[in-house]
Design goal:
Blueprint lengths: L4 E3 L11 E5 L4 H12 L3 H15 L6 H12 L15 H10 L1 E5 L4 E9 L11 E10 L5 E10 L5 E3 L11 E4 L2 E2 H11 L18 E2 L1 H14 L4 H15 L2 E4 L22 E10 L5 E10 L4 E8 L4 E6 L11 E2 L8 E5 L6 E6 L8 E5 L9 E4 L4 E3 L2 E9 L5 E8 L7 E4 L20 E2 L4 E3 L2 E8 L3 E8 H10 L1
Antiparallel strand pairs: 1-28, 2-3, 4-5, 5-6, 6-7, 8-11, 9-10, 11-15, 12-13, 13-14, 14-15, 16-17, 17-18, 18-19, 20-22, 21-22, 22-23, 23-24, 25-27, 26-27, 27-28
Helix pairs in contact: 1-4, 2-4, 3-4, 6-7
């Protein structure tokens, strides 16, 4: 029997008017020429140029003068080449200089896709049988650089979604805090990943560092160590692993006066410079009842992918950390919403085409995995993977899956696994739950429906999904009907 899917009419489409103000670096020589030209202007001329810029862009960005000043500070060190001290410049000149090193970036001009949905931590002012939700999206702009953005809305008793007002003043985090490492704990993290000292003498790197150090200091030590060692492929890979570990930790704080729809998690570290892809958000309840929101995502630097994790409790403050271990190597990791038999549990896809399950005592370190599912039906012969974190039901762990079949068509499926032993499959849909229809198959990548996380509200499963990697929508499925079909399959 085919499970009935109710497609909803709401569409989330790319909006090229949604922009952030990014730092623009033009190279030292061009930068010096620009600075030289501005500081050669009279104060009156500076104001004649600056005032229209502030007037125009203050309508598009929150506190644009502060952004300009921040960008000036990024190139202020070059002033010494002009024998100019930063303190000798007035504020207006600094702000004007900063404006030349600022550009607008349209974060979702190309695509707005691969959504996940979680319960909002604030359920105030909702009516009976209503639920406020947060939907995350992968937003893609020029150069196919992806970031994470959010929308909020309220599901009514019939699971119709009312989208809450969307703010227009987008911004990156107000504060980005780079991680300061303690040597002792850093060595421990490295040992969890691999036996460093058996391959690289520790005095070449870690012993040269102070008890606490920054990413930049570690990078300089590794640069020197590379010069003094004959690098085998294994040593070079380990150097890269150390660098990735150090560059991956950071924290983001967004201004309290931002709407959640205005907060943009844009790539920060080198290993994600080409995109933050496919965040799978999940509401996680720890053994002590503490609630956190985690998201696993794929960092992409243009060549290599790296699984990473976001941790937040309020969607204002975010911690970013890498995932370590032999199985944290591919796309599509999805965390269970609670521990299972005392351990963290994760779905993953080590080889690119099978589903695996892993358990760990440490949420950041994943070493061993067990094969969970292989492609079985024609619509998933190319690959099978998860479409978000498992959902706990009275009948078992419900997992929305994706399969890839002829003509690289992506379809959504569903599987059910035992609550106490989630490595045991109870049932699996023989036919797709949802396939791209005529309206959904045209887009940036044709013939694809894809989701990064669903939830249950009332007696229905809510599945947000992307349409051909261009726009997004959502559908509902009667939960009991789906579970009954899975148990009989």
């Amino acid at each position: 029997m085919q499970v009935a899917v109710n497609r909803k009419g709401i569409k989330f489409c790319p909006d090229a008017s949604r922009v952030i103000a990014r730092f623009l670096y033009t190279g030292d020589e061009r930068t010096l020429n620009t600075i030289r030209s501005v500081i050669g202007m009279s104060e009156n001329s500076v104001m004649q140029i600056l005032n229209p810029v502030l007037s125009d862009y203050s309508l598009r960005h929150r506190n644009i003068s502060k952004i300009f000043e921040k960008h000036f500070n990024k190139i202020a060190h070059l002033l010494e080449k002009l024998n100019v001290g930063p303190d000798s410049l007035n504020t207006s000149t600094k702000i004007l200089i900063g404006s030349y090193f600022t550009m607008e970036y349209s974060i979702e001009s190309a695509a707005f896709f691969n959504p996940s949905i979680v319960e909002h931590p604030d359920q105030s002012e909702t009516g009976p049988n209503e639920k406020r939700v947060i939907i995350s999206f992968r937003a893609t702009g020029e150069g196919h650089i992806s970031s994470i953005v959010f929308r909020t809305g309220v599901l009514d008793k019939n699971n119709n979604l009312s989208i809450e007002p969307v703010g227009k003043m987008l911004e990156e985090a107000e504060h980005i805090r780079r991680y300061v490492y303690e040597k002792k704990s850093f060595k421990k993290k490295l040992s969890e990943m691999k036996d460093v000292h058996a391959i690289i003498p520790s005095d070449l790197i870690l012993d040269r560092l102070k008890d606490t150090f920054t990413y930049g200091e570690l990078r300089d030590c590794i640069k020197e160590a590379r010069k003094s060692l004959h690098l085998t492929a294994e040593k070079d890979a380990l150097f890269n692993q150390i660098i990735w570990l150090a560059s991956s930790h950071y924290e983001l704080d967004f201004s309290l006066d931002t709407n959640i729809s205005e907060r943009v998690i844009f790539p920060v570290s080198a290993n994600e410079k080409n995109g933050i892809e496919d965040a799978r958000f999940v509401k996680f309840i720890d053994d002590d009842g503490k609630i956190s929101y985690y998201a696993t995502y794929t960092a992409y630097d243009g060549t290599t992918v790296m699984p990473k994790m976001i941790d937040t409790t309020d969607f204002y403050h975010f911690r970013i950390l890498p995932l370590h271990g032999e199985i944290a190597q591919n796309k599509g990791m999805a965390l269970f919403p609670r521990k299972v038999n005392g351990k963290y549990a994760m779905l993953c896809r080590l080889d690119g085409f099978n589903n695996y399950i892993a358990f760990s005592d440490n949420i950041s370190v994943w070493r061993n995995a067990k094969l969970l599912q292989q492609p079985k039906f024609p619509w998933e012969f190319i690959q099978v993977g998860n479409c978000g974190s498992p959902i706990e039901t009275s009948e078992g762990w419900l997992v929305i899956t994706h399969g890839v079949g002829p003509m690289r068509e992506y379809a959504l499926g569903a599987s059910l696994f035992d609550l106490q032993n989630p490595g045991k499959e109870i049932g699996r849909l023989k036919s797709p739950l949802l396939m791209p229809n005529a309206e959904e198959r045209e887009g940036y990548v044709p013939n694809v429906v894809y989701s990064c996380g669903s939830i249950i509200h009332g007696d229905e499963l809510i599945i947000p999904y992307a349409m051909s990697d261009y726009a997004s929508t959502y559908a509902t499925v009667n939960l009991q009907e789906l579970l009954n079909e899975l148990k009989s399959s």
